[in-house]
Specification:
18% strand; 7 strands; two-stranded antiparallel ribbon
Length: 167
C-alpha cells in the first residue's frame, strides 16, 4: 500500500508449519478489530510509543502519539474540535504531572463514549485489589501484549459502535 508523500507499507505473510497452524476456530476469535480505528496513544516512554504505535499502524489503524498526559489531552481536544473523533484512547497510568487517571477523566468529560484503555506496570495489583480507576474501560498490564490490546480494541470499539458512536 502506497501513499504519495507518506511512503509504502508492505506486509509479508508466511504460513505456519502444520503442527502449530491455528484451527479455524482459534484464528477467528474476533480479537482483531475488523475496522480501521483512529487511536490516541499516550505515554511518557518514547520506546513504548514507537513500538506500540508501529504495531498498531501495521494493523491498519491511524495512530496519533502523545508524549505525556497533557499532550494527550491537547491532542484529544484538537481532534475533537476539528470533528475528528478518536475511536479509543490508550494511556499509561504513571506519568509525571498529569497521570493516566487524569487523562481518562478528561477524555470521558469531553466524550463519555470514547473507550479508554489504561496500560500500567501495576496492572495485576490494581486488578487484584479491584482498584481500577474510574473513567477507565479496561486496564492492561505492561509490558502490553499486542493480542490483549487487539482484543480490548475489538471489544470496546464494537460496543461503542453499538451505542451509536461510529469508531
Amino acid at each position: 500500500r502506497s501513499v504519495l508523500g507518506q511512503g509504502t507499507v508492505a506486509r509479508l505473510s508466511f504460513p505456519a508449519p502444520p503442527d502449530i497452524a491455528p484451527t479455524v476456530e482459534e484464528a477467528d476469535t474476533g480479537s482483531t478489530p475488523p475496522m480501521r480505528l483512529r487511536l490516541l496513544l499516550v505515554d511518557d516512554d518514547p520506546v513504548l510509543l514507537k513500538a506500540l504505535g508501529d504495531a498498531l499502524r501495521l494493523d491498519g489503524h491511524l495512530v496519533t502519539i502523545a508524549n505525556g498526559g497533557q499532550a494527550g489531552i491537547d491532542a484529544f481536544d484538537a481532534a475533537h474540535s476539528g470533528r475528528e473523533q478518536f475511536s479509543a484512547v490508550i494511556t499509561d497510568l504513571g506519568m509525571p504531572n498529569i497521570d493516566g487517571r487524569k487523562v481518562a477523566a478528561e477524555i470521558k468529560a469531553r466524550s463519555p463514549t470514547t473507550p479508554v484503555i489504561l496500560l500500567t506496570g501495576w496492572g495485576r495489583g490494581l486488578i487484584a485489589d479491584a482498584d481500577i480507576p474510574p473513567h477507565v474501560d479496561q486496564l492492561l498490564s505492561k509490558p502490553p501484549k499486542l493480542r490483549d490490546i487487539r482484543a480490548a480494541l475489538a471489544r470496546h470499539c464494537h460496543e461503542a459502535k453499538l451505542r451509536g458512536q461510529a469508531p
